[in-house]
Design a protein that fits this description.
2 domains; 14 helices
Length: 406
């Protein structure tokens, strides 16, 4: 009986109830769109780091992470092909490729600049680094010798283009100076302008020849699913321990400092948004319920005179708030889903973030947790904001309330 009566009472003043439902629905839609946009930003930023620099996992010789910056040649993997074979045996590993990091001077004859270099395996690196985009020329390919691709900023500093000759100068593993004549094959750019301003890539065999070594420093691993990162790390650590390999594994999220700080910032902003929307919904429902009590004082006195207990009055008004929350939540979630689909279909053109060079198209990610939170928030805030008006109605004096019927 209370439920049927509560449902009928809500629509006695259709305009006010529709305004309240609109506020609740708008709050749900705002949470879904904002939360989905932020989640999509996280995913695209994460994948750009994984697919440009980091991979999902990197494998080093133990001690490299702590001391490798000062003494990189003391922590080299001497049997990379054997280790890569063990890594690729894991079912979630799509690719594993060696990298050899080095630095030195790059000269065109008249201009000399410093650089940071990567020796890579073109076949597997091109599969992993899908966010490395070629602006001019061609990418490295299997069989290339004495070819290099330059970061956009580095090529501009040297005024070098595809086909130009360069000289790479670097310290070998033993500390001597070595130089190689190279040819620019292409110019690339990534999501990081700072990286593009100093970076170049060469085939790993060329880097080994330049540094006089057969070893490599890092094996970069690409997975079929980012969510499997921790499981694969556990599996690789167990395999390395079993085979007696002196190796350590590091996940992408421990290396992406900018990403983790950005995620933390956006999560705090989203919390503030949720708080503001919650307050708006509470005030809207509170206003509706409070006005309903003022208009129905006589009715409350009548039902109490007929035997309805004060607890029954509280139940009636709480049910009205609950129904408003459920109906508003359903409308909001459904509308939010349709609007998110539409926005994702059209796309939101976004400028490059600070320190980046790549434009990107944002979408609204469909996150079940956000939909569930929006629906629950609509119900909880509606019921909570009905508590005070319900208690206020239950405390009316019967005789005083009945006078409003006269």
């Amino acid at each position: 009986m209370y439920l049927r009566l509560a449902f009928r009472n809500i629509f006695r003043n259709k305009v006010r109830s529709l305004i309240t439902l609109g506020a609740i629905s708008f709050g749900c839609i705002s949470l879904i769109i904002a939360g989905g946009f932020i989640e999509n930003t996280f995913i695209q930023l994460r994948e750009s780091y994984i697919r440009s620099f980091l991979g999902h996992i990197q494998v080093y010789k133990k001690g490299f992470l702590e001391q490798g910056v000062a003494r990189p040649f003391d922590f080299m993997i001497s049997n990379p092909d054997e280790v890569i074979k063990k890594i690729t045996d894991h079912p979630h590993v799509v690719a594993a490729t060696p990298r050899l990091e080095f630095s030195g001077l790059l000269s065109t004859g008249e201009t000399t600049v410093s650089f940071i270099g990567q020796g890579v395996n073109p076949k597997w690196e091109n599969q992993i680094s899908t966010f490395v985009q070629l602006e001019k020329g061609e990418n490295l390919a299997e069989g290339d010798t004495y070819k290099t691709i330059l970061g956009k900023g580095l090529s501009e500093a040297l005024m070098a283009k595809a086909g130009d000759p360069l000289v790479l100068v670097a310290n070998t593993k033993s500390g001597a100076i070595n130089a190689l004549d190279m040819e620019v094959k292409g110019v690339f750019f990534t999501s990081s302008k700072a990286y593009d301003d100093r970076a170049l890539r060469v085939p790993v065999e060329v880097a080994q020849k330049l540094l006089h070594t057969d070893d490599i420093q890092t094996i970069v691993v690409l997975l079929d699913d980012t969510s499997e990162t921790d499981a694969v790390i556990a599996g690789l650590n167990e395999r390395f321990k079993k085979d007696g390999l002196d190796l350590e594994v590091k996940p992408w999220y421990d290396m992406a400092d900018f990403y983790t700080k950005t995620v933390d910032l956006y999560k705090r902003q989203f919390f503030v948004l949720k708080l503001i929307i919650g307050i708006v919904v509470v005030l809207s429902v509170f206003n509706t319920m409070n006005m309903a009590i003022l208009e129905r004082i006589g009715e409350v006195g009548t039902i109490m005179a007929l035997g309805t207990k004060r607890r029954g009055v509280v139940t009636l008004f709480l049910l009205e708030g609950l129904i408003l929350g459920i109906v508003g939540g359903v409308i909001g979630v459904a509308s939010g889903y349709l609007l998110a689909m539409l926005i994702s279909y059209i796309g939101i053109p976004m400028p490059p973030p600070p320190g980046a060079t790549i434009y990107w198209t944002a979408q609204i990610e469909m996150v079940p947790a956000i939909f569930a939170f929006a629906f629950v928030l609509a119900i909880v805030t509606s019921v909570v904001s009905s508590c005070y008006p319900a208690i206020k109605a239950s405390r009316l004096e019967i005789a005083e309330a009945l006078r409003h019927n006269i």
